[in-house]
Amino acid sequence: SGRALSTEIIVIYQNGRSPHKDPRSDFHSLPRFEPDSSSVREAEVYVDGQPKGRPVVLQDIEATAIRNLDELIGGMLAKRVAGRIVKEVAAEELERRTNNAAVGALARIILIASDQADLRSWSFLPRDLQILRIPASPGVHEVDVRPIGASPIPSQKVEVREGEKKFVSFRFVP
């Protein structure tokens, strides 16, 4: 076929930090995601000093993480309530066997204090993944990504051959 192959630079922009987990204010033993406070949401891409556009969001990791945790919270709450009941029964049984209310109270305090929200998360992930496809001529090009409202990311030199699609990745972490 006589179809010419397109020559492109494809910029993958990993923007920001993923949300972090904190205990919920209404039920401290359950987690919630708190979005990163960075104000940077977009970037401008330059090739050889010329503006080429802004990447579009390919995957919003922050929104996905928050939505997925919210969908799981009902089951997590049921498990926590069941666990709390088991701990209360254990404390009552300890109090009954020792015939000592102070031992039962101490057991309750220890068991309840050990009931903490699981705050583990993939903190190294970006808030979102963005992409921009840029038609390019064959040769060596300098690609810059400039987060709007923050310092530029170090540029990268990219060599593109005729008909090639060259991927270049940038990461912005405030």
Can you describe what's shown?
29% of the residues lie in helices and 34% in strands. It contains two helices and ten strands. Helix 1 packs antiparallel against helix 2 (101-113). The radius of gyration is 26 Å and the shape is rod-shaped. The relative contact order is 0.32. The model has no long low-confidence stretch (mean pLDDT 85).
Strands of the largest sheet, in order across it? 6-7-1-10
Mean pLDDT: 85
Spell out the helices and strands N to C: EEEEEEHHEEEE
| Distance between the amino and carboxyl termini | 48 Å
The unreliable regions are: none
> How is the biggest beta sheet arranged?
4 strands, mixed
Based on DSSP secondary structure assignment, what is the total number of beta strands? 10
Helix content: 25-40%
Task: Using the CA coordinates, give the radius of gyration.
Answer: 26 Å
Task: List the total number of helices.
Answer: 2
Question: Helix- and strand-based class?
Answer: alpha+beta
- Overall 3D shape: rod-shaped
Estimate what percentage of residues fall within beta strands: 25-35%
Write the layout of secondary structure elements.
Elements: E1 8-15, E2 20-23, E3 31-34, E4 43-47, E5 50-53, E6 56-60, H1 61-98, H2 101-113, E7 128-135, E8 139-147, E9 156-160, E10 165-172
Parallel strand pairs: 1-10
Antiparallel strand pairs: 1-7, 2-3, 4-5, 4-8, 6-7, 8-9
Key descriptive features of the protein:
single chain, 174 residues, alpha+beta, 4-stranded mixed sheet, 4-stranded antiparallel sheet, 2 helices, 29% helix, 34% strand
